[in-house]
Write a structure and sequence with these properties.
- It contains 14 helices and three strands.
- It is mostly helical.
- It has one domain.
- Strands 1-2-3 form a three-stranded antiparallel sheet, covered by helices on one side.
- A hairpin with a 2-residue loop joins strand 2 and strand 3.
- The radius of gyration is 21 Å and the shape is globular.
Length: 374
């Protein structure tokens, strides 16, 4: 028994674990800094985030030790649970900032679309791994589109356009590496353009259209949607080389910066920790992506390959979108910075998915299958 646990710890990808913890610590520091400016004492948000961290680390440890291959046996069940949660939140969920996407669990909230990201990645990885030796043709594209389209539809009904696009992004990464043909890729690109046009007129809420419009011209709504982006850009630019110091950022502490703990937490880090802090964040994410790609290359089976690529793509897309909207380069979508932004559901999801990726690492290092639980 002792030898089993010793082999487990020795086989961990410590770079993966370290980058994860560094990003979490940056998030806790930024959330604490923002809480200093709150009128009510008690630091409720930092306490909630710490509770989510404990749960997330428990999930990370469980999945890292668990045989990831067994997730294929529960792919349909997890997918159905995710759909039921998405449907249920439309009927019984709470509406926050125009989006009906949270279950209220006492003082805590649960966002089911976060669970759906993990469930969808498992479902798509299972599907593609079972067809890894076949030509990925029209039938496979349509079937994976259907698997993805159903949760996307219910997510858009909330409406949560950012999360819906992230679900589509997970699908795109999987089919891209599954061997999609060029002609099919071009056709899907055309479909995406047509869907974007359709979504603008029939799916996007007014405030979502305003976010996109003010992205191209912030002067259209300088005190509304354009205000958020403008203040974020000011905060990023004010940081300089070393920043104003944790808890001393004028934009966040004086509440000029909206959603400073979630959407614009990157701007808080940039203002208070400066170029040095931002550089550490970028380097940490770069190391994380490097380890994820390395894990994908060393995957022992197709399920691990597709799952690691799906989750790595999800983290990468959310990172790019969040940083882009903080710099005024992309529209505001409501997607937080992975493992950094405030949000218990999101934090638990990311730690869980990294636990599954760690499980793949452990089992790729010439360890006996029988030495792990199954």
């Amino acid at each position: 028994m002792l030898e089993k646990y010793t082999n487990y710890f020795r086989s961990n990808d410590w770079w993966l674990l370290t980058t994860m913890l560094v990003l979490v610590m940056f998030g806790l520091a930024a959330i604490y800094s923002v809480e200093l400016s709150q009128e009510t004492a008690g630091f409720l948000n930092i306490k909630k985030q710490l509770i989510a961290l404990v749960i997330g680390l428990g999930c990370y440890s469980f999945f890292a030790y668990y045989n990831y291959r067994l997730l294929q046996n529960y792919s349909v069940l997890l997918y159905v649970i995710g759909l039921l949660l998405l449907i249920g939140v439309l009927l019984f969920g709470s509406t926050i900032r125009g989006t009906t996407g949270w279950y209220n669990l006492g003082p805590f909230g649960f966002q089911p679309v976060e669970f759906m990201k993990l469930a969808l990645a498992i479902a798509l990885a299972t599907y593609c791994s079972q067809r890894a030796r076949r030509l990925f043709g029209v039938r496979e594209i349509l079937e994976t589109m259907a698997i993805t389209g159903v949760p996307v539809f219910f997510t858009l009904l909330q409406p949560d356009f950012g999360s819906a696009m992230l679900l589509i992004g997970i699908w795109f990464v999987v089919v891209l590496f599954a061997g999609i043909q060029r002609k099919h890729f071009l056709f899907l690109t055309l479909c995406a353009i047509l869907f974007g046009i359709f979504a603008w007129f029939f799916l996007l809420a007014d405030y979502q259209q305003a976010r996109i419009a003010t992205f191209f011209d912030p002067s259209l709504d300088p005190l509304g949607e354009g205000y958020n982006v403008t203040q974020a850009v000011i905060a990023v630019g004010a940081g300089g080389s070393y920043g104003s110091g944790l808890g001393f950022g004028s934009q966040s502490q004086l509440k000029f910066l909206p959603e400073s703990q979630t959407d614009f937490i990157f701007a808080v880090i940039a203002e208070e920790l400066g170029f040095v802090g931002v550089s550490i964040v970028f380097i940490t994410f770069s190391l994380l992506f490097w380890r994820i790609l390395t894990t994908a290359k060393r995957a022992r089976d197709d399920f691990a390959l597709y799952f690691v690529l799906a989750m790595g793509g999800s983290i990468f897309l959310q990172f790019v979108v969040n940083v882009g909207m903080n710099l005024g380069m992309l529209p505001v979508t409501g997607l937080g910075l992975p493992m950094v932004s405030y949000g218990g559901s999101s934090l638990i999801l990311f730690l869980s998915m990294l636990g599954v990726i760690q499980s793949s690492v452990i089992r790729s290092k010439h360890l006996s299958q029988s030495s792990f639980c199954s």
